[in-house]
Amino acid sequence: MASNTYPVGFYFMVCLKGENAAFQEVSGISKELGIEEVVSGGENRFKYRLPTTSSSQNLVLKRALVPEGSGLVDWCVSSMDGGLGVTIQTNDISVSLLDANGDMLVMWTFHKAYPIKYSVSDLKSQENALVIESVELAYTYFEITDNGTNTSNLFD
């Protein structure tokens, strides 16, 4: 029987390098299948729409700036400032959506992720707001695991 309660988007956990990390926002969990339109010779009423490769957005993590040492920031610096002569260290990152009891409902695991952008929100003397740091990550693929521990690649 289906549950009458639906998950809320504000109760989630991010696990990076085996450690839980607090983030204000996670975005970019999506996958899209590209198409190619092919015109049929002699048939001008329609085009064939054929599937091509799939693509995904970058994963974006946002949180309040952590002024003291941060493993996430250190990873960003070593990956982006090392140049192409230094091997980029990839990590698996998981994002878990939790229920009211703190139990996992759905987990997305992003494999071989690495930072491609680090940014800090604008500093404005007129506003009383937290300084937010954002990290954008590229990854190879992601898997979805539900609370029944069924794991599959997206669209299997």
From TrEMBL:
Taxonomy, superkingdom: Bacteria
Taxonomic placement: Bacteria, Pseudomonadati, Bacteroidota, Sphingobacteriia, Sphingobacteriales
Molecular function via GO: structural molecule activity
PANTHER family in UniProt: CONSERVED HYPOTHETICAL PHAGE TAIL PROTEIN
Protein name: Phage tail protein
InterPro entries registered for this protein in UniProt: CHP02241, Phage_T4_Gp19
Gene source species: Pedobacter alluvionis
Database matches in NCBIfam families: conserved hypothetical phage tail region protein
